[in-house]
Amino acid sequence: MDAPGNSACYAEWSVGIADDPELLRRIDQWPHNKRQPLLMLAAARFLGAEAGPYPDFRAFLDEHWADVSRTVLSRATQTNEAGRCASLLPSLAQIAVAGGRPLALIEVGASAGLNLYPDRYGYEYATSAGTTRLAPAGAVPGGYPVLGCTVTGPAPLPAGLPAVVWRAGIDLNPLDVRNPDDVAWLEALIWPEQDFRRERLHRALQVARADPPLLVAGDLNDRLPALAAQAPPDATLVVFHSAVLAYLDAAARDRFRGTMAQLATDRGCHWLSNEGHTVILQADGSSVVPEMDDERLRGRFLLLHNGTPVAITGPHGQSLEWL
Q1: Are 118 and 85 contacting, i.e. CB atoms less than 8 angstroms apart?
Q2: 16: which residues sit within 8 A by CB, 6+ positions away?
Q3: By CB atoms within 10 Å of each CB, which of 118, 178, 248, 276 scores lowest?
Q4: Are 288 and 275 in contact (CB under 8 A)?
């Protein structure tokens, strides 16, 4: 985990867990794909664990272990960080201008679909020349999140927000922005000290509740072709994802690339991939995107447009380094 420097609480808890043989024994009883630090910590927070010293957290786990385990086994890390729209917006605006048409968006691995509203959020891009501010036309200030992003390189920052006429998402288990339990899970996935992200989440939820997205449940490879067929033919279709391909094995990734190639041929679909350049180690050791120097990325994502790297991005959209 990247807890040091981002969450003193999670850093302390992670060290405590690593030095706790009995707790590690319990965690080892879960399926391999459920042994994710953030998933376990979020499950405990979802059930009421308060930020504090590790001994208090450990006592909470002892008292609530059955519920923690049940939550881990039934939930997934579905962090729905609206801030990532700041990384995607310049590319989306470029695509809209080049096509001369409004956009139809599909997000795979959409969680609650909060990244499907790039046209309804505000932005503050900090550059060496000053700050570029964008706001949705006609929206009431305070009724939408304002996404801050530090920009380096010749990023094509837009003068306005692109028009989006259709939006949809796919997730194995979509979260409903109107369901209090699902919203509580989204809140639990935010690290304890990061109140600014919690506030951003609440404002993004306001936007989504006013016009809930079309979300379909299922495997992205199974559902994508039929969902893409529903997109308006007079709009430019864009399929995008962030921190998703790590959860696919090599065969599923190959299938997804094939589907995207077919969509590009059939209807000029654009593909935005915002992922870590390597993934959680898998059997074949394959990577999500072309190799790039680890020292340059330093835990950030690589944004690709139709397979070509265009930017290095902060995992939560906090930075954009245009290549």
Answers
A1: yes
A2: 54, 57, 58
A3: 178
A4: yes
Distance, CA of 298 to chain centre: 18
Residue 133's H or E segment, with its range, is strand 130-134
All residues at 6 or more sequence positions from 270 whose CB lies less than 8 Å from its CB, including other chains: 95, 236, 237, 238, 239, 264, 305, 306
Three-state DSSP state, 144: coil
* 179: amino acid identity, one letter: N
Nearest one of 294, 225, 248, 275 to 88, comparing CA atoms: 275
Q: How would you write the pLDDT of the chain (323 residues) with one tens digit per residue?
A: 565 557 899 999 999 999 999 999 999 999 998 998 999 999 999 999 999 999 999 999 999 999 999 999 999 888 899 999 999 999 999 999 999 999 999 999 999 999 999 999 999 999 999 999 999 988 888 899 999 999 999 999 999 999 999 999 999 999 999 999 999 999 999 999 889 999 999 999 999 999 999 999 999 999 999 999 999 999 999 999 998 988 888 889 889 999 999 999 999 999 999 988 654 344 444 454 555 666 777 788 999 999 888 999 999 999 999 99
* Site of tokens 């042994």: 35
- Contact residues for 193 (Cβ-Cβ < 8 A; gap 6+): 6, 7, 8, 9, 51
**Cα(56)–Cα(257) distance, rounded to whole angstroms?**
46
